[in-house]
Amino acid sequence: MAAKTLTIDGKQISAEEGATVLQAATEAGIPIPTLCHLEGVYDMGACRLCIVEITGIPKLLPACTTKVAEGMEIKTNSERLRKYRRMILELLFAERNHVCAVCVSNGHCELQTLAYSQGMEHVRYDYTFPKWNLDTTHRLFGMDHNRCVLCNRCVRVCWHIEGAGTKNVSGRGAKSRIITDLNMPWGDADSCTECGKCVMSCPTGALFNKGSTVGEMERDRDKLEFIVNAREKKQWIAD
Amino acid sequence: MKRIMIEPVSRIEGHARITIQLDDAGKVTDTKFQVTQVRGFEKFTEGRPFYEMPGITSRICGICPISHQLAASKACDAIMAVRIPPAAQLLREIIHCAQVVQSHALSFFYLSAPDLLLGMDHDPATRNVAGLIEANPELARAGIELRKFGLLVIEGLAEERVHPSWIVPGGVKSPMTVQARDRFLAAIPQAMATAEKTLGIFKGVLDSFTEEIANFGSAPTMYAGLVDSAGNIQFYDGLLRFRAADGSIVQEGIAAEDYAEFIGEATLSDSYLKAPFYRPQGWPEGIYRVGALARINVAEAMGTPRADAELTEFRQRFGRMAHSSFLYHYARLIEVMYGLEAMQLLLQQADVLDTHVRAEAGVNALEGVGMIEAPRGTLIHHYKVDENGAITWANLIVATGHNNRAIGDGVRQVAEHFIRGDKLEEGMLNRVSALVRAYDPCLSCSTHAIGVPALDISLVDAKGALLDRLRSDA
């Protein structure tokens, strides 16, 4: 496959044709913050945390869905990007009810970690305090829509790793919501195999093992990548 | 006619207002003790999974989060219908002892010692913990040491000092290491020596407070507290006993799940703090007190040698039933000694290091009640859940609530005794605040409300004109 040469943050690198900017940067050891990206499933650019500046393109583009091109000049860490990333995080916090202190993922949450690492000191926007419910009808797992950031990881792992297709999205915009089967209680969703991959993939405390208390949800996401590698590359290699 | 308002009352946990009504001759005609804020934990926890309750309700208070976690976890144990592993029970009792020691140390040294050791009439600018450090560094250090000891144990077990999430439905998250146990055991003798020294200092100044002892909420009431099968004091388990002012036992053997049969809650029109009462006697006849003084009145003995020696001396001084609210301070110090002795015994138990510390189960009962003795008195968490474990109803009866009416009556007694004429003297108003402080009320807990303690006293005449005002930050 042809290689493309490009510049990321002043560093000359080469990447395989068809690779995304995120993949190229990761391989070159240049960190780009991500939230909806998950190794093992396709990217969809849902969260916009990985936006980058590309010379000649006025829009900011998500690194996870933008393919590399010859001669690209990319900035991943400008003041403009930091400003927008903070803004995105603040909007995520304002959109639902994220209460870290009493959350099952406190201390192991990707949203919380990003807020720290991106220097989010406060939320400028009014909290919307929406009324979302919980679904605790499943025997093993629970879903708290208050803590969902609509990253779609659970939907992608359910369809494309497990192949069950239980998880879907209903509604539009801020009213979007993760549903199970035809919008029925999770406990009644026949297609669910109880594999728990959705719980493993969740970046926040939205999906959890029932019975989890504050800070108890630690997730082993490497397992998802392991399964994909085993299936697609016939490699059974764990880190 | 004039009205004096003390708002907010300082050096307490939470936010309260005291109103004192004077007639034209300057005589106290009425007093009100009002708690002015509301938080609504019982409402907003509806819909949450029951196993989140220890984490959520512990946020009611930063001083005794452990107490709420324990009561909440016990209520959750009941919903799961499990008996927690023996080691988990011991570890919960150990952290609870640590919590009682550090909380009582906070109440005594940081909040009340400035009144007791600097004097009720001392300049308010330095009548605080900073003034205490200056005037009596040794005593201030003792307070810091005892609190540090309690927090050392809490942090050593639960990894965090203030809001750990270690106590969980079914037990605790992790076992205790040998190293942690040895560290705690090694620190106990020093803490006991500090407690004993403090008791000595306190007993030394008691004689200068005879007027306060006689007039500080000294009206006899019924008392309630948990006791074990031998009738000795119990912080974590045990059954609730009510003992009348004359020393006779009114009712005993009340299990957590039966509390509602014996405890009713009156809603007051002018305060957000509800007032529990002994249901068989009705409101307001059935008022009773809880907390350190109530516990030592209710129990036959402490059950540990040094604390029992202190209790014997206490009863020699004040009789079998002691009624003055001023003596809550004394009772608290005896309980600090008991907490240290009890912890030492618990740490020496054979299965305390067992690694099986958590029972797992789903919803096996749709209702659960947890009852413990928090530092400030009996604490009850009562939850109802649906079959998926979501909370449908919650009721929290918090220690300070039980004392609501007694604090109100005590305020009146202190005001009638110490406030004379229409001249506002800071020292006499401080005695009114000190009565409230004697109960170490946690108003943020009891209304599940939040507030910044500060002192604001207004003297207003019958026409509403402001005659005088004193104000200070906490």
Task: Give the helix/strand layout.
The complex is a heterodimer of chains A (239) and B (474).
Chain A: E1 3-8, E2 11-16, H1 21-27, E3 51-54, E4 57-62, E5 73-75, H2 79-95, H3 110-117, E6 134-135, E7 141-144, H4 153-162, E8 167-170, E9 177-180, H5 197-201, E10 207-209, H6 222-233
Parallel strand pairs in A: 1-5
Antiparallel strand pairs in A: 1-2, 3-4, 3-5, 6-7, 7-10, 8-9
Chain B: E1 2-6, E2 16-22, E3 28-35, H1 41-44, H2 53-57, H3 65-80, H4 86-118, H5 129-135, H6 137-158, E4 167-168, E5 171-172, H7 178-205, H8 210-215, E6 222-227, E7 239-243, E8 249-254, H9 259-262, E9 263-266, E10 275-278, E11 288-289, H10 292-298, H11 305-318, H12 328-347, E12 367-374, E13 377-385, E14 391-397, H13 399-402, H14 404-418, H15 426-438, H16 443-446, E15 454-461, E16 466-473
Parallel strand pairs in B: 6-11
Antiparallel strand pairs in B: 1-2, 1-15, 2-3, 4-5, 6-7, 7-8, 9-10, 12-13, 13-14, 15-16
Please tell me the overall pLDDT of chain A. Answer: 95
Unreliable residue stretches of chain A: none
Q: How large a portion of the residues of chain A is in β-strands, by DSSP E?
A: 15-25%
Shape annotation of chain A: globular
Q: Considering DSSP H and I runs of 4 or more, what fraction of the residues of chain A is helical?
A: 10-25%
* Count of distinct structural domains of chain A: 2
Strand order of the largest sheet of chain A: 2-1-5-3-4
Annotation field: number of helices of chain B: 16
The quaternary structure here is heterodimer
